[in-house]
Amino acid sequence: MTINPDQSITFSPLHRLQWEEAQQKYVILYPEGMVELNQSSAEILLCCDGSRNLAQIISELEQKFATTGLTNDITAFLEVALQNGWIKQ
């Protein structure tokens, strides 16, 4: 599976992205368990609300962190997220 750059990206309704106070990080909760996220992964997934496509997510994060060149890293992470069912298109 690969990300379709023209379609909006939505976090899966079968999973829940939430801040875990005890661990001081975002996690993905699902019936079989939990995935701890680093800050970069959480920032990407927080943008997956169905209102943005790949280019819009990249642009927003590059602006937010005042940097460029995030395309490959963000795309690679979103492809893993899509394969794991964390996001959908």
TrEMBL record:
Pathway: Cofactor biosynthesis; pyrroloquinoline quinone biosynthesis. One of its GO terms (molecular function) is quinone binding. Signal peptide: none annotated. One of its GO terms (biological process) is pyrroloquinoline quinone biosynthetic process. Pfam families: PqqD (PF05402). InterPro entries: PQQD (IPR008792), PqqD_bac (IPR022479), PqqD_sf (IPR041881). Keywords: PQQ biosynthesis. Monomer. Interacts with PqqE. This is Coenzyme PQQ synthesis protein D. It comes from Methyloglobulus morosus KoM1.
